[in-house]
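ESCALATION

Customer reports they have been waiting on this structure for their group meeting. Please prioritize. Original submission:
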Amino acid sequence: MTRSLKKGPYVDEKLLKKIEGKKPAEAGPLKTWARNSQISPEMVGFTFKVHNGKDFIDVFVTEEMVGHRLGEFSPTKKFYRHGGKMQKELDQAKKQAEIAAAKAAKANA
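Update from on-call: job pushed to the front of the queue and completed.
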């Protein structure tokens, strides 16, 4: 759901205080837990360490990110992969290709 236009965008006040009057180069990465804070134009060029529930992920803010939320760039779930017979066959084929490439490199050397 979008936020009401009469309320305006939500930007965490603590974040704005942290970047107020500073240049991106001198500020360094800024730690934050405010994943729901929207990215404003003043934040462009800064690096934020956004908490994902376990650790902090560096997010460098660019102009294309303005209007999005900080949490969108710090994923909270890690995708390992789907298992099954098909995945095992793909892994074996990949391993065979690596072995063949290593043998070819030895033959050339």
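Sent to customer with the following note: Residues 47 and 90 are 38 Å apart (CA to CA).
Escalation resolved.
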